[in-house]
Automatic annotation (TrEMBL):
Domain MotA/TolQ/ExbB proton channel: 63-159
Transmembrane segments: 14-34, 87-111, 131-151
One cellular component (GO) term of this entry: plasma membrane
Cellular compartment(s): Cell membrane; Membrane
Protein name per UniProt: MotA/TolQ/ExbB proton channel family protein
GO BP terms: protein import
Similarity annotation: Belongs to the exbB/tolQ family.
Keywords annotated in UniProt: Cell membrane, Membrane, Protein transport, Transmembrane, Transmembrane helix, Transport
InterPro entries: ExbB/TolQ_transport, MotA_ExbB_proton_chnl
Primary localization: membrane
Membrane topology: Multi-pass membrane protein
Length: 201
């Protein structure tokens, strides 16, 4: 157990302080990605089912008002589906820039070593080269993996939003159809009642 921890510590020491910043950004990024997947798989189906049940139990008789309510409910669902996605994209874009910053700081360390001891100390120069290359590699790995999952999240948002729109549109049409059938039945009863002969005194 101590050997992997020692290797991990040596890796972070070779990468310099920028590698620690990239690690913190990666932790925040993956926490947000896992939270989004948790919402898509566990919470969103419950919210959609609750919304579907509410529309089925209390349909809106007015078609224009029903469309406005449907648009409002869909807007709320889309906002919840796409929450944290802009922040995820921002963190993905920041990771390569942090890696580039690590490259610059590592090269500065190499030049300082060369200016102090010349080219006769390859061990000191290797430390600067490691500080320049490891953060770049780490930033690119975090950015590429996060970019892949962000694309899948975006597609999941679009498909779930389309599913919610189809469900609510179907409920609006069913509610208006039921209301129209009830109105026709009421009108037919009135006509039948008016057609009946009035009893004579």
């Amino acid at each position: 157990m101590a050997e992997p921890l020692f290797a991990l510590r040596r890796f972070f020491d070779a990468g310099g302080p920028i590698l620690g910043v990239i690690f913190l950004v990666a932790v925040v990024l993956w926490m947000l990605i896992i939270e989004r997947y948790w919402y898509h798989w566990r919470l969103f189906p419950r919210e959609l089912a609750a919304l579907h049940g509410r529309w089925r139990l209390a349909p809106c008789p007015d078609r224009r008002l029903a469309e406005k309510m449907r648009f409002k409910d869909l807007s709320v669902l889309r906002q919840r589906l796409t929450a944290s996605l802009p922040l995820i994209r921002t963190l993905i874009a920041v990771c390569p820039l942090l890696g580039l910053l690590g490259t610059v700081t590592g090269m500065i360390h190499v030049f300082e070593t060369m200016g102090f001891s010349g080219t006769g100390n390859p061990r000191a120069m290797a430390a600067g080269v490691s500080m320049a290359t490891i953060p770049t590699m780490s930033g690119l790995v975090v950015a590429l993996s996060g970019f892949l999952f962000s694309i899948r999240l975006q597609r999941g948002c679009e498909s779930r939003a389309a599913l919610a729109a189809d469900t609510l549109t179907r409920e609006v049409c069913m509610g208006c159809a039921l209301d129209g059938a009830a109105a026709l039945e009421t009108a037919g009863n009135k006509e039948t009642h008016n057609a009946l002969p009035t009893p004579s005194a």
